[in-house]
C-alpha cells in the first residue's frame, strides 16, 4: 500500500480544486451529463436507459465517495475501536434507490440561501423535498423516468439467503448508527445462479452480474496482498516445537486485490466501506517452466488464480466440503486480516492493545480460519509468545451461529485441510491440545467429554475439524440469532461448551432488517402514509422504529383503515403487473376481485425444513375439497363461501444438487398447472411460482402480501428474517412456534398472528416415534398424498412425486408434516374466516403488526452487538 503525502506548499492548490458534491438539481444534471459524455463516451444522441442508469449511479457515487473519504479520514484521526464484519456472503441487491434514500441532501436542495434576506427560500414551486425526488425530477427533465433507470441495475446477489441478506442489512445499519465498521467479503464474478423454470423444473443459469461493469465499486489496485497455499512447514533441528515460531514455505501464491463499495448511512454523512477481494495471478513468473519452454502452461497455472473468487457456492443450510471452498475461505481471511493489521500498525500501538481497537465478528463459521491466521501471524511472524497471542485472538473475535442443523455445520477432513494449509493444521492441533487440557483439568472424571468437545472429531472414516467448535473456542462471545435459537444452541450443539465456559459466553441478538430498504424503498406508499400520519415528513421514524407504536391508536379508525387498505391494494396490483409481465403478458390474477382475494405467500430458499411441501399439500387439500363440493352439486358461490378466493404464491431457489427441494419446485408447478387450468373452480384458487426470487423481486412481492407462511419444523429455523419484512409491510403471518416468530408474536400480540403446530420441545420425541412405529397419517393428508401417488399431477410420469410422499410415509417424516398437517389446515380455515368475514379486524391486525414491529429494525441489532459484544461506540462528528 502507498503512503505518499503532498508537501505543505502544494496543498493550497489541492484545496482550491477540492471536489464538491452535487447539492441541487442543476449540479446533478451537470454531473450526469459529464459522466455520459466523458466516462461513458456517449452523448444525447445515444443515451439509453442503461447509460442513464450508469451516469446517475456514477454521479451519486461521486457524492458518496467524497463522504466516504471524509468518514475514513475522520476515523484515522479519531482512531476509535473498529468493527470488522467478516461474511462470505453479502446479498446487497440494488444500490441506486437505497443510495438516493440514504444520502439526503434535501436541505440544500429545498432552500436557496439568498444573500439578501439570508432566509431560505423555495427554489421553485413544488420543488422536491428529498434527493430521490430531486433526481427523479432531473431525470425527467433529461428525458428519463427514475423507475426505468433503477430497473437497469442488476442485483448484487453475492449470497444465498438469510445469512447473506442479514450481512447486507447489518452493514446498512452500522453506517446509519455511525459505527466505525467495515465489511469484508469476496467479490464473486458469479453471484447466486439465476433460476429459470422450464417445464416446471428449476434450471440454473450463471449470474455474470459484472457483464456491464459495476458503477458502485472502486478498484483499489494499490491494495493487494499475496496469499499462499499448500507447501510445507520448515522444521529445522533447533525448532522442533509447533508452538515456537515456524516457517511455512508456501507453494501456490495468488494476489488478493481490494474492491471497495461505499455504504451510506441514513441521515448521516457517514459512509462505511464494504471491501471485497478478487483473486488475481501474481506477477511472479515460473522460471523453471519458462526455461523448459512450457510458457503456455505457466500462464495457465497463473490464470487459475482467478477461479478462487469466480463463484459463490449456492448451498443454503448445507455444507459440502470442497477444496475450492476452503481456498476461498483462507484467501479471504488472510487478505482481510493483513489489511486489518496494516491499518492497526499505523497507530503504532503495542499488540496487547489490539483487542481494544479491533473487534472481528464471524458471520457463521465460514471465517473461522481468521482465528487461526491471526494466531499464526502473531506467533510465527510477530514472534509473540503462544499464550499472549491466544489471549489477543480470543479477545478479538466473536462468533454468530445461524443453524443447529447437523448437515449445515462445517467440518473439514484433516487430510484435505493439512494439504492446503499445513501450518494452520498444526496450530489447530495445538489450540485443541491446550483446550482439552483445560477441560480435563476442570472435569477429570468425565471421560467421554474430551472426545465430545474436541475440535477434532475422531471415529469416522477420517478425522475432521469441527469449525463451529473452533469458532467457540477462539471467540469471547457466541450468539444465536433469535431467543429460541440461542437457547437451543446452549442445550444441543454447544451444551458441553456451556458447561466448560459457563453460560455468560453465550448470548442472543435477535436478527433485524433495515427499514430503509424494506419499508421506505420497497413500499413508498406505506412510507408516505406513515410519515403523514406521524407528521414526520422527514422520515425520522426510520431511525426510531419503536415510534411506530403511535399507529396503534388508529388501528380501529375506519378512515385510517381505508387508507391503509388502499396502500395494500395498490401493492397487490403492482405485484399482479409483475406476474403478468413474467407470464408473457397473460394475467393469472383476477383483478376484478383483487379486493376479495387473499394473497398468500411463501418466498424463501426451498428446503425441506422450511416445509414448502406442507404448504402445497394444504393447497391440494383445498382444491380437492372444492372439487368434492362441486361434484356434490354446490354452486361456485357456495364453494366461495367455504373457500374464499386465494392466490398461493411460491418463490425461491433450490441448491442445484438438492434433489428433494428441486422435486418440490416441480410439484408446486405441476399442481399450479392443474389448478390454474381447471375451469370448474373458476378463479377461486390459483397457484403461482415466481421464478428467480431475489432481493429486487422481494421488494415488490413482500409489500403485496396479505398472509405469509413461516412454517418450518419447530426448532429448525434459527430466526428467519422475511417474517419481519412481511410484518413490517402489514402482512399477517401464519407460522410455527419457531425462530423469530416467537418474538414477533410477543411484540405484535398473539391475536395478530396465526400460530400452529408442535413445539420444539416435542420434536425429538415425535421423530423418535416415527422411527420405531409406522407414521400415522391424518385422514386429510392421506387423501392428498394418495392423489399425488395416483399421478394426478404427473399423468405422464405417475411416480414422479413418489419420493416426496415416501419421505413421509416410508422414511420417518423427519420434518413432521404429518404431525402438523391438521393444525395447519385448521389455522388456514381461521385465516380465511377473518379475511373474508371480518375485514376490519384483519386490517386492524395488519396495522398493529406494523405498529409493533419496531424491535426488528437492524439498527437495534447493531446497538446490541455494539454494547454487548463489540464494545464500540458511534463516532458522530
Ligand atoms: C440463515 N442461515 C438461517 N445459512 O437459516 C435463518 O434462520 C436466519 O434468519 C438467517 O441465517 C440469518 O441469521 C443461512 O442463510 C446459509 O445460507 C449458509 C450458506 C453457506 C452454507 C451453509 C448455510
UniProtKB/TrEMBL annotation:
Q: Which keywords belong to this entry?
A: Allosteric enzyme, Carbohydrate metabolism, Glycosyltransferase, Pyridoxal phosphate, Transferase
Q: Look at the named UniProt entry and state the broad enzyme category this protein falls under.
A: transferase
Molecular function per GO: glycogen phosphorylase activity; pyridoxal phosphate binding
UniProt key word Glycosyltransferase: yes
User: Which Gene Ontology cellular component terms are annotated?
Assistant: cytoplasm
Record-listed N6-(pyridoxal phosphate)lysine modification sites: 725
Pfam families, from UniProt? Phosphorylase (PF00343)
- Give the matching Gene3D superfamilies: Glycogen Phosphorylase B
> Positions of the region Disordered?
110-130
InterPro entries, A to Z: Glycg_phsphrylas (IPR011833), Glyco_trans_35 (IPR000811), Pyridoxal_P_attach_site (IPR035090)
Cofactor(s) listed:
pyridoxal 5'-phosphate
Give me the reactions it catalyses: [(1->4)-alpha-D-glucosyl](n) + phosphate = [(1->4)-alpha-D-glucosyl](n-1) + alpha-D-glucose 1-phosphate
Which GO terms fall under biological process for this protein?
A: glycogen catabolic process
| E.C. number | 2.4.1.1
Q: Which CDD domains match?
A: GT35_Glycogen_Phosphorylase
- The secretion signal range is none
- Protein origin, superkingdom: Eukaryota
General function of this protein = Allosteric enzyme that catalyzes the rate-limiting step in glycogen catabolism, the phosphorolytic cleavage of glycogen to produce glucose-1-phosphate, and plays a central role in maintaining cellular and organismal glucose homeostasis.
| Similarity annotation | Belongs to the glycogen phosphorylase family.
Q: Which NCBIfam families match?
A: P_ylase (TIGR02093)
Name listed for the protein in its UniProt record: Alpha-1,4 glucan phosphorylase
Amino acid at each position: 500500500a502507498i503512503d505518499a503525502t503532498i508537501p505543505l506548499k502544494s496543498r493550497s492548490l489541492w484545496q482550491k480544486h477540492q471536489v464538491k458534491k452535487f447539492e441541487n438539481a442543476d449540479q446533478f444534471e451537470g454531473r450526469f451529463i459529464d459522466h455520459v459524455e466523458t466516462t461513458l463516451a456517449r452523448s444525447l444522441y445515444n443515451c439509453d436507459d442503461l447509460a442513464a442508469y450508469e451516469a446517475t449511479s456514477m454521479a451519486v457515487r461521486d457524492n458518496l465517495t467524497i463522504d466516504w473519504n471524509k468518514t475514513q479520514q475522520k476515523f484515522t484521526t479519531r482512531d476509535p475501536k473498529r468493527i470488522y464484519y467478516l461474511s462470505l456472503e453479502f446479498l446487497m441487491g440494488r444500490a441506486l434507490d437505497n443510495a438516493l434514500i440514504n444520502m439526503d441532501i434535501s436541505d440544500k436542495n429545498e432552500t436557496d440561501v439568498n444573500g439578501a434576506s439570508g432566509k431560505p427560500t423555495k427554489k421553485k414551486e413544488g420543488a422536491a423535498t428529498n434527493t430521490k425526488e430531486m433526481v427523479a425530477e432531473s431525470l425527467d427533465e433529461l428525458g428519463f423516468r427514475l423507475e426505468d433507470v433503477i430497473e437497469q441495475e442488476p442485483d448484487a446477489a453475492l449470497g444465498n439467503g438469510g445469512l447473506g441478506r442479514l450481512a447486507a442489512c447489518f452493514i446498512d445499519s452500522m453506517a446509519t448508527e455511525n459505527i466505525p465498521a467495515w465489511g469484508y467479503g469476496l467479490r464473486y464474478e458469479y453471484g447466486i445462479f439465476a433460476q429459470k423454470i422450464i417445464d416446471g423444473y428449476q434450471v440454473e443459469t450463471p449470474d455474470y452480474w459484472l457483464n456491464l461493469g459495476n458503477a458502485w465499486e472502486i478498484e483499489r489496485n494499490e491494495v493487494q496482498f499475496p496469499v499462499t497455499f499448500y507447501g510445507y512447514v520448515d522444521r529445522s533441528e533447533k525448532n522442533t516445537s509447533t508452538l515456537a515460531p515456524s516457517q511455512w514455505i508456501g507453494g501456490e501464491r495468488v494476489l488478493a486485490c481490494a474492491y471497495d463499495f461505499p455504504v451510506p448511512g441514513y441521515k448521516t454523512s457517514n459512509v462505511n466501506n464494504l471491501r471485497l477481494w478478487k483473486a488475481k495471478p501474481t506477477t511472479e513468473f515460473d522460471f523453471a517452466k519458462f526455461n523448459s519452454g512450457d510458457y503456455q502452461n505457466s500462464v495457465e497455472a497463473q490464470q487459475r488464480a482467478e477461479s478462487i473468487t469466480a463463484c459463490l457456492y449456492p448451498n443454503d443450510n448445507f455444507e459440502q466440503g470442497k477444496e475450492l471452498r476452503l481456498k476461498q475461505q483462507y484467501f479471504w481471511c488472510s487478505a482481510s486480516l493483513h489489511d486489518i493489521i496494516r491499518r492497526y500498525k499505523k497507530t503504532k500501538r503495542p499488540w496487547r492493545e489490539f483487542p481494544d481497537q479491533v473487534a472481528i465478528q464471524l458471520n457463521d463459521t465460514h471465517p473461522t480460519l481468521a482465528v487461526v491466521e491471526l494466531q499464526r501471524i502473531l506467533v510465527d511472524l510477530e514472534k509473540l509468545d503462544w499464550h499472549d497471542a491466544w489471549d489477543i485472538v480470543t479477545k478479538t473475535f466473536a462468533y454468530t451461529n445461524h443453524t443447529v442443523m447437523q448437515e449445515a455445520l462445517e467440518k473439514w477432513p484433516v487430510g484435505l485441510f493439512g494439504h492446503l494449509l499445513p501450518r494452520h493444521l498444526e496450530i489447530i492441533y495445538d489450540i485443541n491440545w491446550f483446550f482439552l487440557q483445560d477441560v480435563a483439568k476442570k472435569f477429570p472424571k468425565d471421560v467421554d467429554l474430551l472426545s465430545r468437545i474436541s475440535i477434532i472429531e475422531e471415529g469416522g472414516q477420517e478425522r475432521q475439524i469441527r469449525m463451529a467448535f473452533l469458532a467457540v473456542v477462539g471467540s469471547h462471545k457466541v450468539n444465536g440469532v433469535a431467543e429460541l435459537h440461542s437457547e437451543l444452541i446452549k442445550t444441543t450443539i454447544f451444551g458441553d461448551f456451556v458447561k466448560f465456559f459457563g453460560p455468560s459466553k453465550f448470548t442472543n441478538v435477535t436478527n433485524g432488517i433495515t427499514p430503509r430498504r424494506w419499508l421506505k424503498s420497497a413500499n413508498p406508499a406505506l412510507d408516505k402514509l406513515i410519515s403523514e400520519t406521524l407528521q414526520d415528513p422527514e422520515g425520522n421514524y426510520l431511525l426510531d422504529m419503536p415510534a411506530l407504536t403511535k399507529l396503534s391508536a388508529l388501528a380501529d379508525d375506519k378512515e385510517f383503515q381505508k387508507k391503509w387498505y388502499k396502500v395494500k391494494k395498490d401493492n397487490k396490483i403492482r405485484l399482479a403487473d409483475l406476474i403478468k409481465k413474467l407470464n408473457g403478458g397473460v394475467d393469472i390474477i383476477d383483478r376484478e376481485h383483487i379486493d376479495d382475494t387473499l394473497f398468500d405467500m411463501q418466498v424463501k430458499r426451498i428446503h425441506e425444513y422450511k416445509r414448502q411441501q406442507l404448504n402445497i399439500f394444504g393447497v391440494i387439500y383445498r382444491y380437492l375439497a372444492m372439487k368434492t363440493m362441486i361434484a356434490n352439486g354446490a354452486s361456485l358461490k357456495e364453494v366461495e363461501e367455504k373457500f374464499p378466493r386465494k392466490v398461493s404464491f411460491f418463490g425461491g431457489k433450490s441448491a442445484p444438487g438438492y434433489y428433494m427441494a428441486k422435486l418440490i419446485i416441480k410439484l408446486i408447478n405441476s399442481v399450479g398447472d392443474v389448478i390454474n387450468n381447471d375451469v370448474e373452480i373458476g378463479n377461486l384458487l390459483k397457484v403461482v411460482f415466481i421464478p428467480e426470487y431475489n432481493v429486487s423481486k422481494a421488494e415488490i412481492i413482500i409489500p403485496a402480501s396479505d398472509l405469509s407462511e413461516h412454517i418450518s419444523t419447530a426448532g429448525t429455523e434459527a430466526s428467519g428474517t422475511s417474517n419481519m419484512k412481511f410484518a413490517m409491510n402489514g402482512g399477517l403471518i401464519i407460522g410455527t412456534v419457531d425462530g423469530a416468530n416467537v418474538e414477533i408474536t410477543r411484540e405484535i400480540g398473539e391475536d395478530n398472528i396465526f400460530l400452529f403446530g408442535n413445539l420444539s420441545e416435542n420434536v425429538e420425541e415425535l421423530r423418535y416415534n416415527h422411527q420405531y412405529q409406522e407414521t400415522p397419517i391424518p385422514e386429510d393428508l392421506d387423501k392428498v398424498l394418495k392423489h399425488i401417488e395416483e399421478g394426478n399431477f404427473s399423468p405422464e410420469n405417475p411416480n414422479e412425486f413418489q419420493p416426496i410422499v415416501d419421505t413421509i410415509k416410508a422414511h420417518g417424516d423427519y420434518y413432521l408434516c404429518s404431525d402438523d398437517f391438521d393444525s395447519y389446515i385448521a389455522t388456514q380455515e381461521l385465516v380465511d374466516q377473518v379475511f373474508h368475514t371480518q375485514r376490519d379486524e384483519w386490517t386492524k391486525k395488519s396495522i398493529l403488526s406494523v405498529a409493533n414491529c419496531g424491535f426488528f429494525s437492524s439498527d437495534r441489532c447493531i446497538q446490541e452487538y455494539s454494547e454487548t459484544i463489540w464494545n464500540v461506540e458511534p463516532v458522530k462528528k
